[in-house]
């Protein structure tokens, strides 16, 4: 049975104000263009997704607690962490 846990970290770019409290708590967050937060693509388990409103990345590195700590430190509540299991990531087929 595959027990790998993956998780998606998303930043609401409309709420992000470049405070960067997340960077101090999780080194996968980086300063991106425009003075807002982003992710280093080398750290993500897939491509970094970027729209005008959101930047997100999926990880499977066992560091979900660091992501949650970074999200909790954001004074603007701009960061969401959503756990997914491997079956969800593959579209539901186990």
Descriptive key words:
about 90 residues; single chain; 6 strands; alpha+beta; 3 helices; two-stranded antiparallel sheet; Alpha-Beta Plaits; four-stranded antiparallel sheet
Instruction: Return the string of H and E elements.
Output: EHEEEEHEH
Overall pLDDT level: 88
Strand order of the largest sheet: 4-5-1-6
Number of domains: 1
Tell me the name of the CATH class.
Alpha Beta
Q: Report how far apart the termini are.
A: 8 Å
pLDDT < 50 runs, ≥5 residues: none
Structural class: alpha+beta
Total number of helices: 3
Strand content: 25-35%
Shape: globular
CATH architecture descriptor name = 2-Layer Sandwich
Secondary structure tally: strands:
6
Helical residues, percent: 10-25%
Q: What radius of gyration results from the CA coordinates?
A: 13 Å
CATH level-3 fold name: Alpha-Beta Plaits
- Sheet with the most strands? 4 strands, antiparallel
Describe this protein's structure.
The chain is of the alpha+beta class. The chain has one domain (5-89): Alpha-Beta Plaits, CATH 3.30.70.20. 20% of the residues lie in helices and 31% in strands. Strands 4-5-1-6 form a four-stranded antiparallel sheet. The protein has a two-stranded antiparallel ribbon with strand order 2-3. A hairpin with a 5-residue loop joins β2 (29-31) and β3 (37-39). The longest helix is centred in the C-terminal third of the chain and has 10 residues, at 64-73. The protein is globular. This is Ferredoxin. Pfam families: Fer4_15 (PF13459). It comes from Halorubrum rutilum.
């Amino acid at each position: 049975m595959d027990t790998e846990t993956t998780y998606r970290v998303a930043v609401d770019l409309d709420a992000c104000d470049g405070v960067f409290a997340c960077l101090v708590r999780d080194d996968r967050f980086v300063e991106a263009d425009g003075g807002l937060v982003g992710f280093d693509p080398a750290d993500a388990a897939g491509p970094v997704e970027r729209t005008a409103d959101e930047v997100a990345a999926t990880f499977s590195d066992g560091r979900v607690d660091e992501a949650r700590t970074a999200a909790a430190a954001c004074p603007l509540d701009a960061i969401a962490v959503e756990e997914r299991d491997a079956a969800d990531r593959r579209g539901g087929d186990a």
